[in-house]
Amino acid sequence: MTDTTLAASPGRLSRADWLASLPRNTACSALVLHDAEYRLLLVHATYEDSWQFVGGVRDAQDDPWTTAVREAREEIGYELVGPPRLLGYDWVTFEDCEPAVQHFFRAPVLEPGRLDSIRLSEEHDDWRLLSVEEWTRHLGPHRARRLRPVRDALRTGRPLCLRDGYPVT
């Protein structure tokens, strides 16, 4: 065997065919920005009427952490320093396309003065820092059900493990 192909034998796939047979998914990352009271900062998209965590889809060359850092810089002008602090993930399924894994990274606690430096990109037209209870009035069911487990993971330090917004048990 070599690094690029499996040994040729009946019933065995070439490496290229094996790779082509693997399931596909999309990787996304979000930076969970919050204050000392665990109010969450979300941004409003201009391309659809939705409130979202700061984040986005992974570029081909990016790992999940690099995606979160890049998206925070692009979307709100937030420069993140320090090591990654993975909060957890949400495995999201769709009827019309491949599933996505949404990685959540914990940002440092937002100090009040830091909010003045938020600069929205053209992708967003508003931001708010609200409690989970306040946010649920503004969000669709999937995004709303993620908020309480995300906040709880911030508070407790326990890993966040969701499937379609529900905790995996």
From TrEMBL:
The keyword ATP-binding does not apply. Keywords: Hydrolase. GO terms for biological process: AMP biosynthetic process; ATP biosynthetic process. InterPro entries: NUDIX_hydrolase-like_dom_sf, NUDIX_hydrolase_dom, Nudix_hydrolase_domain. PROSITE patterns: NUDIX. Coiled coil: none annotated. Pfam families: NUDIX. Signal peptide: none annotated. Residues 23-152 form the Nudix hydrolase domain. GO terms for molecular function: bis(5'-nucleosyl)-tetraphosphatase (asymmetrical) activity. This is Nudix hydrolase domain-containing protein. It comes from Streptomyces gougerotii.
